[in-house]
Automatic annotation (TrEMBL):
GO terms for cellular component: proton-transporting ATP synthase complex. Signal peptide: none annotated. This is Fragment of ATP-Synthase alpha. Residues 2-62 form the ATPase F1/V1/A1 complex alpha/beta subunit nucleotide-binding domain. It comes from Mycoplasmoides pneumoniae. The keyword Translocase applies.
Length: 62
């Protein structure tokens, strides 16, 4: 996991040198995890580790 951003930057630099446009965004998804937990608790569904219920994604996108 530590090397993932460095790998992304290396690939982006390669594409940049090839004359392509590059946009790279890094996010740790911590805010999404907090929102998922909050919605799960509000819906009285304990958040699971193995799968995400589809209705939570629907509610999260609203």
């Amino acid at each position: 996991i530590y090397l993932t951003p460095f790998t992304g930057i290396t690939i982006a630099e390669y594409w940049l040198k090839q004359g392509k446009d590059v946009l790279i965004v890094f996010d740790d998804l911590s805010k999404h995890a907090i929102a998922y937990r909050t919605l799960s608790l509000l819906l009285r569904r304990p958040p699971g580790r193995e799968a995400f219920p589809g209705d939570v994604f629907y509610l999260h996108s609203r």
